[in-house]
Design brief:
The protein is an all-alpha fold. The protein has helices spanning about 1-60, 70-85, 90-110, 115-130, 135-175, 185-200, 205-220, 225-245, 250-270.
Length: about 270
C-alpha cells in the first residue's frame, strides 16, 4: 500500500513538473511572439515616419533649389546627418559623411555651383544604391529621392554655366562698344567678380588670368593710368583667355574664345 502511494505521488509530481514546463514554454513562446509583434510595429512606425520625412524632402527638392535659404538647407542637412550617422548600415554612414562634406561647402561660402552640384549628385547615387536594399515601404521614395538629388545637382551646375554665359556676353558687349566710356566702378566690379571665381581654381591657366585681373585692377585704380600699360595687360589676358577656352565646356568654349579675342583687340587699340 505504501509503495503504491509512493509511486502515485511520484507520478503526480512528474505530471506537475511536466505541466509546469509546458506552461513555462507557452509563456516563453507568447513572450517571443509579443516581442516580435512589438518590434514589427515599431519598425513599421519608423518606416512610416521616415516615409513622411522623405516626402517632405522631395517636396523641397522639387522646388527651386537655387532659391533655397542657406539656413534652411543647413537645417535639413543637420537633421538627416543626425539620423543617418546613428545607423548601423555602412551605406547610410557613407551618405552621412557626404552630407557632412556638403555642409562644409555651404558653410564655407566659397564653393561653386558645380562643386555643390557634384556632391548632390554623389548623394543621389548613394541614395539610389541603398534604395535597392531598403524595405518595401521605403524603396520607392528612396529611389525618387536619389533621382531628385541627382537632378538638383545637375541643375546647379547648369544654372552656374548660364550665369557665366550671361556675364561673358555682357562683358563682350561692353568691350565691343567704346571701352573708354566704360565706367571705372563698373569695370572694377566686373574684375572683382571674375577674380573671385578664378583665383581659387586649381587650374594654373585660370590662376594666371586671376593674377592678370588683379594687375589690371591696380592699374585702373591709379589716378592717371597709362593706356599702353592697360593695353599690355588686356592683350595678355586675351591670349590667356583664348588658351583657357580649349578646356572649357561645350556651351562656354565659343563665348570664352570670343572674349579672349575682344580683350586682345581692345588692348591693341590702347597701345
Amino acid at each position: 500500500m505504501a509503495s503504491q502511494a509512493e509511486n502515485k505521488g511520484k507520478h503526480s509530481a512528474a505530471h506537475d513538473e511536466t505541466s509546469s514546463k509546458k506552461v513555462a514554454h507557452k509563456d516563453e513562446v507568447d513572450s517571443k511572439k509579443h516581442s516580435a509583434t512589438k518590434n514589427e510595429a515599431d519598425t513599421n512606425k519608423h518606416d512610416a515616419d521616415t516615409h513622411q520625412e522623405l516626402d517632405s524632402l522631395l517636396s523641397t527638392l522639387e522646388g527651386d533649389v537655387i532659391a533655397l535659404d542657406p539656413d534652411a538647407a543647413l537645417s535639413i542637412i543637420d537633421q538627416w546627418h543626425g539620423e543617418l550617422n546613428k545607423a548601423k548600415e555602412p551605406e547610410l554612414k557613407e551618405i552621412a559623411n557626404t552630407l557632412k562634406e556638403l555642409k562644409q561647402f555651404l558653410k564655407g561660402g566659397k564653393a561653386t555651383g558645380h562643386e555643390i552640384g557634384e556632391v548632390l549628385v554623389e548623394i543621389g547615387e548613394q541614395t539610389a544604391n541603398f534604395a535597392s536594399e531598403a524595405s518595401k515601404e521605403l524603396k520607392t521614395p528612396l529611389q525618387k529621392l536619389g533621382k531628385q538629388l541627382t537632378k538638383a545637382g545637375t541643375s546647379l551646375g547648369k544654372a552656374e554655366d548660364q550665369e557665366h554665359i550671361e556675364q561673358i556676353e555682357s562683358l563682350v558687349e561692353n568691350l565691343e562698344g567704346d571701352p573708354t566710356k566704360i565706367d571705372t566702378e563698373v569695370a572694377l566690379n566686373s574684375i572683382d567678380t571674375w577674380y573671385s571665381l578664378l583665383h581659387k581654381s586649381e587650374d594654373e591657366n585660370l590662376k594666371e588670368i586671376a593674377n592678370g585681373l588683379k594687375e589690371l585692377k591696380q592699374l585702373l585704380k591709379r589716378s592717371n593710368p597709362k593706356g599702353a600699360d592697360i593695353g599690355a595687360v588686356l592683350i595678355r589676358l586675351g591670349e590667356q583667355t583664348q588658351e583657357a577656352a580649349h578646356s572649357a565646356g561645350r556651351g562656354l568654349k565659343g563665348r570664352i574664345q570670343k572674349l579672349g579675342k575682344v580683350l586682345s583687340k581692345v588692348g591693341k587699340s590702347l597701345e
